[in-house]
Write a structure and sequence with these properties.
Helix content is 71%, strand content 0%. With 68 residues, the chain is mainly alpha-helical. It has one domain. It is elongated and about 55 Å long. It starts with a helix and ends with a helix.
Length: 68
């Protein structure tokens, strides 16, 4: 697949929650597939961090209820 096609798909893609890959400038400026893959790797890490933050927030709430 050509880099231009990959960029178009990346810019149009939305994750499960409807969020886009917020690094659109990096996508547009990328000259290689490696650079585009770096953007996807960073977004994957962002999703992991977001889930970790949400779980931590939930666990603090759960613990505040003192159910155990």
């Amino acid at each position: 697949m050509k880099i231009s096609e990959i960029k178009k798909k990346m810019l149009a893609w939305r994750d499960f929650y409807g969020a886009d890959i917020f690094e659109s400038d990096r996508i547009k400026k990328a000259k290689t597939k490696k650079k585009l893959d770096d953007v996807l790797y960073d977004y994957s890490r962002h999703m992991e961090d977001r889930e970790s933050d949400a779980r931590g927030h939930f666990e603090r709430f759960r613990n505040s209820l003192k159910l155990t």
